[in-house]
């Protein structure tokens, strides 16, 4: 549900929350492949080990530990990728460089772009101890709240009371403080763990039966759609390669018969 010219006369935008995009993609997957046994989805599960040579993964799920196998394992599991670690063990020529970036990040959803900011622009609002990056979204705005470790005064990561968090945000971002000084906004802030950005650079995106996509392969450390956009590009590239392989295999079978 993207922003269109009909939304308060604002400019169109493809900005969308990652959670909403994932939900839409999952719904489409289920619509296309939910019957016939082609799709199996498991939530509340964590991959603990990956064998890129054998094409197996060990998973901890609600029903207990289990081992799964596949012709191709797609590691879309972020900067701390378990699949990437399995590829490093499997192929001595494979190498990955990971670098942590300074600072912490949380995301707050707002009902509207705070005045006096322009409603159709992306804005940077400096503050102390937190700063904000404000992006217009469909029917509201997204605030990326960031801060550095070791700053003076209160550590935002340690704040657990919603009202205290709201006061901290409002006082830090005095230009737009009124938009943050509510218990609901404070609750959004304290109910999530801080995210930390990192960069990842690999010399290859495949080894054995495993491939890497998105931040697992090439995290840029950005927090404004770069990772999601590149991950979608990776998925399209992988789909193209798999289709070519399937067509080549079908052609070989026809030639043999």
Summarize the structure.
By secondary structure, the chain is of the alpha+beta class. It is built from 6 helices and 12 strands.
Write the layout of secondary structure elements.
Layout: H1 18-33, E1 46-51, E2 56-61, E3 64-69, E4 73-75, H2 82-90, E5 96-100, E6 104-110, E7 123-125, E8 131-137, E9 140-147, H3 162-172, H4 183-190, E10 198-202, E11 206-207, E12 210-212, H5 215-218, H6 226-256
Parallel strand pairs: 4-12
Antiparallel strand pairs: 1-2, 2-3, 5-10, 6-9, 7-8, 8-9, 11-12
Helix pairs in contact: 3-4
How would you characterize this protein structure?
The chain is of the alpha+beta class and 257 residues long. It is built from six helices and twelve strands. The strands form four sheets. The protein has a four-stranded antiparallel sheet. The protein is globular and about 75 Å long.
Number of helices: 6
Tell me the radius of gyration. 22 Å
User: What string, H for helix and E for strand, traces the elements in order?
Assistant: HEEEEHEEEEEHHEEEHH
Strand coverage percent: 15-25%
Which parts are unreliable, with pLDDT below 50 for 5 consecutive residues or more? none
Shape: globular
Spatial strand arrangement across the major sheet: 6-9-8-7
Mean pLDDT value: 91
**Strand element count:** 12
Largest sheet: 4 strands, antiparallel
What is the subunit arrangement here? single chain
Structural class: alpha+beta
Distance between the termini: 49 Å
Q: Which percent bin holds the helix content? A: 25-40%
């Amino acid at each position: 549900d993207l922003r269109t010219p009909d939304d308060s006369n604002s400019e169109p935008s493809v900005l969308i929350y990652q959670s909403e995009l994932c939900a839409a993609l999952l719904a489409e997957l289920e619509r296309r492949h939910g019957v016939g046994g082609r799709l199996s989805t498991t939530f509340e599960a964590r991959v603990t080990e990956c064998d890129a040579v054998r094409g197996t993964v060990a998973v901890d799920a609600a029903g207990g530990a289990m081992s799964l196998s596949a012709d191709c394992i797609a590691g879309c599991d972020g900067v701390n990728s378990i699949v990437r670690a399995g590829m490093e063990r499997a192929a001595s020529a494979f190498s990955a460089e990971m670098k942590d970036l300074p600072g912490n990040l949380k995301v707050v959803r707002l009902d509207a772009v705070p005045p006096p900011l322009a409603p159709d622009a992306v804005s940077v609002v400096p503050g102390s101890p937190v700063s904000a990056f404000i992006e217009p979204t469909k029917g509201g705005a997204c605030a990326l709240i960031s801060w550095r470790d070791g700053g003076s005064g209160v550590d935002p990561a340690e704040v657990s009371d919603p009202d205290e968090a709201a006061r901290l945000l409002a006082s830090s971002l005095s230009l737009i403080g009124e938009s943050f000084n509510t218990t609901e906004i404070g609750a959004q802030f304290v109910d999530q763990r801080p995210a930390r950005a990192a960069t990842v650079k690999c010399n290859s995106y495949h080894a054995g039966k495993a491939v890497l996509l998105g931040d697992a392969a090439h995290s840029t450390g950005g927090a404004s759609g770069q990772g999601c956009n590149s991950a979608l590009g990776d998925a399209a590239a992988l789909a193209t390669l798999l289709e070519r392989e399937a067509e080549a295999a079908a052609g070989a079978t026809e030639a043999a018969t």
